[in-house]
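Consider the following assembly input.
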Amino acid sequence: MTMLFGVPLAVLYGQLLLGLINGAFYALLSLGLAVIFGLLKIINFAHGALYMLGALCAVVLLNTLGVNYWVALILSPVLVGIFGIFLERFLLRRIAHEDHIYSLLLTFGIALVIQGVFTNIYGVSGMRYPIPEALRGGVNLGFMFLPYYRAWVIVAALVVCFGTWFMIEKTKLGSYLRAGTENAKLMQAFGINVPLLVTLTYGFGVMLAAFAGVLAAPIYSVSPVMGANLLIVVFAVVVIGGMGSIIGAVLTGLGMGIIEGLTKVFYPEASSTVIFLVMVVVLLLRPAGLFGKEA
Amino acid sequence: MKMIKKTLVAAIASTLMAGGAQATISDNEIRIGYLADMSGMYRDLAGPNGLEALRMAVEDFGGEVNGARITVVSADDRNSPDVASSTVRQWVESDGVDMVAGLVASSVSIAATRILEQSNRLGIVSGSAASSITNEHCTANHIHYVYDTYPLAHGTAKAVVDEGGDDWFILTADYAFGHALEGDVRSVVEANGGKVSQAVRHPFPTSDFSSFILQAQTSGSNVVALANAGSDTINAITTAGEFGLTQSGQTLAALLLFLNDVHALGVETAQGIQLTTGWYWDMDDDARAWADRFYERTNVRPSMVQAGIYSSTMHYLNAVKEAGTDEAQAVRAQMIATPINDMFAKGGYIREDGRMVHDMYLAEVKKPAESTGEWDLYKIIRTIPGDQAYRPLSESQCKLVNN
């Protein structure tokens, strides 16, 4: 067998693929954060809790109303997105003109409240969400056994990431959004409803988090604390990619997934730290992040 | 008027003196501090429902010992030894706490018992697994009550080796408990003629196990053992199922699995998994009767840890009553002198190193067809007698044992 640094090459291929799949989750989540930060300048610490809500919502929909996975994949993000719109409209907007630190503290507080309430109701042992019938089983790639569901995750995540990038960078609606964040007053003078645009953008960012949550439900244990650990990593990804850069968030998410996956093979003890190490190095060499514009 | 005053003074003085002769219970109050993970990944195995078990014990005892009121305080240790140290320090130094119960994550228990040793108070460890708690980390100020990694390894690992699983891949949670369990498993596997080819340490906690499961699959070992707990174990078992680990001929052995974990996994996923447990709610009439009362209050069936919290608190309060004092060493001596026969253990006893020795059970998760209800999860395959289950004193490194 061909070896690389004492690890069979076949094992390495498998780990690269798995890293890419985990990276897809990072990409989806950091994309939502980047959209919200880039356009609203809100550091959304509630993102992990909203991701969790997406997954939990899918479980509750299944258990109480029998809603299947494919419907939940749309319905759950919509419901959580509406919740996000309420958050923006009634809480975040009130402090929109204050310093960033206020929105950071507010969203952090919201996250703790959501997490605490659901921990009280559901405990932390987690709930199971069955893998949808059509995606059970897997295929033997020779170097690894790839469950169909994991393959679906990466396809779905990439399609959504590309769609979001396309919408913001290439469509008229996206140009309104970008212009609104550059100069809200001028946009308003042109007759564009900027506050509505802001609310919808936040709602969309939240939907992305909830969508990632539903994608994660069948493979991770669904519990109220599932977002808390992930959030810090995702923030590191956003910082590495460059705050607010959409393409940066997606590429860095995938890249960090791979780096983390490789660390799990060569030195597993460090796999929860490696992303922060990269963050430190990037901040030292390129303070604006890999894809950020130098201020 | 003067007369009345004099009588009053005399009366007060005599009460005080009489009190002074009897009141060897400090402040005339027994204060129990409950320290556990109340919100994190170990919440469900002890947590708020463990506090409820403690309160049940205090209520069943009548709320007082020899006229001294029993009060309970609680705190969330957030699985952090630092939080545990500062909480326990505050409890013993300014709040007059006499006994600390709960104690779940092994690293938390080791930190907490160190403080208890310095200030000579008592701790009863119910949730932790590391056998080092009564081995190299033993103190004269704590008791380890429910289970530890030694019987987990000897029960489950030996059963697996006996069935031909001789080449082990161990996936270990990277902290005190995981290391202790890995060490105990290694010695059992090797003593029974098997070998541990690889041990991989994963960060605590980990949500994505796919990479580790893939490493296990390509390792060529015939047993993949999980030396972790709580949501780590649940996630690992789920991922192993997704990647078809057992279909490709490998045996999956979960070394520490609590009732709430199996409940969360469901019998469909968890069926056939063998595990070692210190107690099961449906194992006999006493256990069932107590579990029914617990269920009425909490709507869940108790884990072995929650049952152990009730039993150990009762044992502690009885010892305080018998000894007539809450001084830690006197109470501990009384607890050691008294055998334990209750809903938790029959013929249990506490050794000089602080280990509570009682029968352990090798259980198997029922198949969906065998399970008659949501909580009907285990069948007990074998009883492991207490004196065989725990590390013998002759192998002990505890400073309280003369070896």
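Chain B has 13 helices and 15 strands. Ask yourself how this observation constrains the way the partners meet.
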